[in-house]
């Protein structure tokens, strides 16, 4: 893999901005046609909607602290590992989420961002007992969480 230093710097700039909750700086890293996916927000299309999702995420993640490492990128794609530490506002529970991020680039901006993490582990931390422990692994519970997240995204006002 040929290292693309601009793309490594772009990923780092994104995570630095996330750590500061600097939405404007995060948005500058994204292509207008960016798509985002993770185990909760499976597919979010377009920069406005992706940034709305981040505003929601930063709102329910009280006191978000993030760190990242292992940033790698070539001309087309990149990866990083990041850790999100926060209090889940709905339950007041502490969460430490380990996340693997994948990126694709177009016009030296992030056009695809996909985060992957262990949904069952996250639900145990964020939701506690009995919901997270008992139901966190079931498809029905995942669907409920996903539907709730999409509804929240649809109801959020664009900035």
TrEMBL record:
InterPro entries xrefs: NTF2-like_dom_sf, SnoaL-like
* Pfam families listed in its UniProt record: SnoaL_2
Question: Where is each SnoaL-like domain found?
Answer: 12-113
Q: Which domain of life is it from?
A: Bacteria
- This protein is called Nuclear transport factor 2 family protein
What organism is this sequence from? Nonomuraea aridisoli
């Amino acid at each position: 893999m040929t290292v693309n230093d601009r793309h490594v710097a772009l990923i780092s700039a994104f995570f630095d901005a996330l750590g500061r909750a600097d939405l404007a700086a995060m948005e500058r890293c994204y292509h207008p046609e960016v798509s985002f996916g993770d185990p909760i927000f499976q597919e979010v299309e377009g920069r406005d909607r992706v940034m709305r999702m981040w505003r929601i995420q930063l709102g329910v993640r009280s006191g978000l602290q993030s760190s990242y490492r292992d940033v790698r990128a070539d001309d087309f794609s990149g990866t990083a590992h990041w850790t999100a530490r926060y209090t889940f506002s709905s339950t007041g529970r502490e969460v430490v989420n380990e996340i693997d991020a994948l990126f694709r680039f177009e016009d030296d901006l992030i056009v695809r961002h996909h985060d992957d993490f262990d949904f069952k582990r996250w639900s145990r931390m964020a939701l506690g007992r009995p919901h997270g422990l008992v139901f966190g692994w079931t498809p029905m519970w995942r669907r409920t969480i996903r539907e709730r997240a999409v509804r929240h995204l649809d109801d959020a006002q664009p900035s």
